[in-house]
From TrEMBL:
The keyword Transport applies. This is ABC transporter domain-containing protein. Residues 4-226 form the ABC transporter domain. Transmembrane segments: none annotated. The chain holds residues 1 to 226 of 402 of the full protein. One of its GO terms (biological process) is carbohydrate transport. Keywords: ATP-binding, Nucleotide-binding, Transport. It comes from Butyribacter intestini. One of its GO terms (molecular function) is ATP binding. It comes from the Bacteria. One of its GO terms (cellular component) is ATP-binding cassette (ABC) transporter complex, substrate-binding subunit-containing.
Amino acid sequence: MAELLMDGIEKKYDGGSFAIKNFDLQIKDKEFVVFVGPSGCGKSTVLRMIAGLEKATAGSIYIDGKVLDKKMAANGDIAMVFQNYALYPHMSVYDNIAYSMKIKKVPKRQIKENVEKVADMLGLKEVLKRKPGQLSGGQKQRVAIGKALIRTPKVFLMDEPLSNLDAKLRTQMRMEIKELYKHSDATFVYVTHDQTEAMTLGTKIVVLNNGKIQQASTPKELYNKP
Ligand code: ADP
Ligand code: ADP
C-alpha cells in the first residue's frame, strides 16, 4: 500500500526534447492507475521514473510522503513488470522468481516458501525447473509477475505486460491481474494501448499526450461519454 505524489515533474532526455512536462499527479493507496495515450507520449518514461530507473530533470516523486530515491526502489517496495518479460534465460523459473531474494541473502528456507507460494498463486508449480525458453508466452509473463511479486511490493508497475500475448491469453491474464489486484495491498500503475484493459482494470485512467496529462478520470467518465 502506498500513496504516490508526482509534483512538477519534467523529464528531458539528453539531446532530446521534453518527454514529460508540467506533470502533477496524485495516486492514492490501493488505486489502479492506467496510463493510456499514443506511442511516444511518455507513458514508459513516467513508469521508469517511479521505478527509479530514470531520474526526473525537475520536480519530485514522493512515496508515502518521502522523496523517492534509488534505495527505495531497490528495497523491493517498488516492482516493475516489462513488456518483454525481462527473465534470465539461463536460470530456471524457480531461480528467476527467487532472484531478488537471493541477492538480498534471504535465508533459503524462506525463499523456498515464498517462491512456492507465488508459484502456486500463478499456476507455475509444474514448471519451476524449466528455463524461460521452455515456457509459453503466458507462462513467461506469469514468471515475470512472480518475480516482481515475491517481495510484496507496495507499488506494482506494469508496462504493457500483455501486449505480446495472443487475444485469448490476453483476456485470461487480464482477469488474473484483476484478481491479483483484488487480493493485493499494492498500488498498481499500468500502461496499455488496449481500451478494454484500461476499462476493466483501472480505477483511474490518465490520458497522456505529448508528455502532458490531457485527462484523468474514472473509466466510466472517460469511455461512457454521450
Ligand atoms: P511511450 O511509453 O508513451 O511510448 P516513452 O516514454 O517511451 O513513450 O517516450 C517518450 C518520449 O521520450 C519519446 O519522444 C521518446 O522518443 C523519448 N525517449 C524515450 N526514451 C528515451 C531515451 N532513452 N533517450 C532519448 N529519448 C527517449
Ligand atoms: P539446497 O538444496 O542447496 O539447500 P535449495 O533447496 O534452496 O538449496 O535449492 C537449490 C536449487 O534447487 C534452487 O536454486 C532451485 O534452482 C532448485 N529448487 C529448489 N526448490 C525447488 C522447487 N520446489 N522446484 C524447483 N526447483 C527447486
